[in-house]
Design goal:
Strand 7, helix 8 and strand 8 form a beta-alpha-beta unit. An 8-stranded mixed beta sheet has the order 1-2-4-3-5-6-7-8, with helices on both faces. It is of the alpha/beta class. It has 10 helices and 8 strands. 44% of the residues lie in helices and 18% in strands. Helix 1 crosses helix 10, helix 2 crosses helix 3 and helix 4 crosses helix 6. It has a single domain, classed as Rossmann fold (3-Layer(aba) Sandwich). The chain is globular, with a radius of gyration of 17 Å.
Length: 265
Amino acid sequence: MTTMKHGLAEINGAQIYYEIRGSGPPLLLIMGLTGDAGWFEPLAELLAEQFTVVTYDRRANSRSPRPEGWTSTSIAEQADDAAGLLSTLRLSPAIIFGNSFGAMILLELIVRHPRSVRGAVAHEPPLMPLLYQAHDLADFWKAKVAKGGPRNALKEFTEMKKDETINGLDPSMMRRAFDNGDVIFSVEMPVIISYKPNAEALRVSKVPIFVAAGEETAMHLFCASKWLATQLKTDLHMLPSGHVGYVDQPREFATALLSLVEKLR
């Protein structure tokens, strides 16, 4: 196991918990819903053999305290947090991998802070406006939260995305992650269900971008990834397993991801 350093960084009015492993070119991993760096631990350990790997709990999630009076967020704020963390750690520009909502944050980061991104791998951004009516989706999850609370709604959300592997994860990490249900549904979900990337701005940025999807992923996630690849006039790359392949097949996922990341050095 590699040596892991961790700390809290003051970023844009928030305290952001981060972990650093390994040595070499900087590689930032951006987590999606639950915002907890613990999901990436198996992958980060493998990637740290060749890279300085940075993971973090997104603002107000898990070990990153909720800022006082913070009741809303934006994709811009989330992107600025990532850029600010890299700058604070003096690891900018970095190669960046983003999964799910983390991939959406990565896309906005490229638009807002292209000099912070050496290259990018966007893995299954959900891009819900392409597939659903935002108000219908908002009403659906509002009803779920009202019925069973944010924690149970989050469990149902992960099951719908076919994240079966969560049952094998560290129980303490999962308790921490599911405690983020209130932040997810009251603060983050409005951003997630309304975000559509600016494909033209992404092309103009000149940042190298690989778009990826899981070989066993749900059809709606595959379709969103395929749409993005088409908009960026690039290929769609397939990675092992499904939406959280870095959890259930970390070694295979790391090998496949490295084949892309090596081209971005």
